[in-house]
Task: inverse folding
């Protein structure tokens, strides 16, 4: 019995994998690609955004309206950009527009008044390219004068004339992607319209004026303070304050340095020259940080966000309020990117999604006019419907609920919802706009016939 050996337990057999040929790999790839693109995206389609708020003009999907709390909050409209920036953004026939949009980051980098530094994470060369940042992003503004006089950058360039500033900008590495004439024009317009660029230029003029009276150039400082928190008369009367003009939504205080002449209000200080041992940066929570870093987006140096927006005591219709705001701003020399004619005749809301349907080919339709593939299309009935709703919602009425021929706004739990009304004889059928799925293709075919 000592020589007895237990029987061997058979090991589980594993299927043998044969090498996959290139042809089979291509078939699997095509099949995987087909399954990925066979998803019915109509399940994610929420319908057209033709639910327009009557108080602020915001576009919503059917059954959704959460914007201004029914006219309680009104955000001032955006100011119209200066030329040629307005045409470069919105005029498709403007010369040089495509080249500008393709290299807009290079233009913005050369015109910004602050640099952005971060620890970027490198990624593999294959796949979708994206920017991965580890840690915080530091926005480092420039002082008035550079430590190296032969290489001024960022805000240092706004103390020079446009041609000399363009020559310095064209020496940078990213300048190979830009056009010199367009860069010169944009740099000149930014220096004229951006309030912080004008503040840099004015600080240079004050320093030169003080040097004529025997003061050292490093004695002057500029401090940017929120205009809502201070009184300009008290700032000017403060010891050591040279000037305190308005700088957009800020007050630029020019004062001489000294322990007894410190400005008590909190703000951001711009020095004549940057100290090599004490770097300073703009904190990420300051509202004017984007005006320093993105002068082509905030053309006038306006704040990117604001707090303390007051509630409106009187609720007005969107069209009526916009007309009043436009007249008030026009009296101050400010033009907004809004007009009464465009509001009335704008049939298709910007950014609204068009209803999707499949073309139905008739006998009289050719293959060129009726493609077989599914495309985005806005039927004529939807254009008329959107124009009617938008026009009637802008009318002034005493009724608490706006009503149209086929749509009326009902209140449910404090929220307003659009509801479709189809009167058929004595019976009345109600349904939400989201479920308004009448066959637009049949209507198009009948109209062609």
Result:
């Amino acid at each position: 019995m000592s020589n007895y050996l237990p029987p061997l337990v058979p090991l589980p057999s594993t299927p043998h994998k044969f090498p996959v040929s290139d042809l089979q790999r291509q078939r699997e790839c095509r099949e995987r690609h087909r399954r990925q693109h066979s998803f019915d995206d109509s399940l994610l389609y929420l319908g057209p955004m033709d639910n327009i708020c009557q108080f602020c003009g915001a576009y919503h999907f059917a059954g959704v309206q959460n914007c201004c709390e029914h006219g309680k909050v009104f955000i001032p409209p955006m100011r119209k950009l200066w030329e040629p920036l307005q045409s470069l953004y919105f005029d498709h026939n403007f010369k040089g527009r495509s080249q500008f949009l393709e290299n807009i980051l290079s233009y913005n980098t050369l015109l910004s008044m602050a640099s952005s530094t971060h620890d970027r994470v490198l990624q593999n060369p294959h796949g979708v390219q994206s920017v991965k940042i580890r840690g915080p992003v530091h926005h480092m503004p420039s002082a008035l004068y550079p430590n190296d006089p032969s290489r001024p950058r960022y805000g240092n360039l706004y103390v020079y004339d446009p041609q000399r500033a363009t020559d310095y900008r064209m020496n940078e590495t990213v300048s190979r992607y830009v056009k010199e004439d367009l860069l010169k024009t944009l740099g000149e317009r930014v220096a004229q319209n951006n309030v912080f660029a004008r503040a840099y230029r004015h600080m240079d003029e004050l320093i030169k004026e003080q040097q004529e009276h025997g003061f050292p150039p490093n004695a002057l400082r500029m401090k940017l303070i929120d205009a809502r928190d201070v009184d300009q008369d008290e700032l000017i009367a403060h010891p050591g304050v040279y000037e305190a003009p308005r700088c957009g939504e800020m007050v630029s205080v020019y004062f001489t340095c000294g322990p007894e002449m410190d400005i008590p209000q909190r703000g951001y200080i711009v020095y004549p020259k940057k100290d090599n041992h004490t770097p300073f940066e703009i904190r990420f929570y300051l509202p004017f940080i984007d005006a320093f870093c993105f002068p082509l987006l905030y053309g006038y140096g306006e704040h990117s966000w604001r707090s303390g927006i007051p509630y409106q005591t009187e609720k007005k219709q969107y069209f009526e309020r916009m007309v009043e705001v436009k007249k008030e701003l026009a009296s101050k020399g400010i033009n907004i990117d809004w007009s009464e004619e465009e509001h009335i005749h704008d049939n298709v809301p910007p950014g609204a999604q068009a209803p999707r349907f499949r073309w139905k080919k008739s006998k009289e339709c050719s293959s060129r006019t009726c493609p077989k593939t599914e495309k985005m299309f806005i039927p004529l009935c939807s254009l008329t419907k959107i124009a009617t709703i938008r026009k009637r919602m802008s009318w002034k009425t005493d009724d608490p609920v706006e009503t149209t021929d086929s749509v009326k706004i009902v209140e449910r739990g404090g929220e307003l919802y659009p509801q479709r009304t189809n009167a058929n004889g004595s019976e009345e059928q109600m349904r939400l706009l989201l479920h308004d799925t009448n066959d637009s293709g049949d209507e198009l075919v009948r109209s062609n016939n």
About this structure: The chain has 13 helices and 14 strands. The longest strand covers residues 132-141. The CA atoms of residues 48 and 353 lie 5 Å apart.
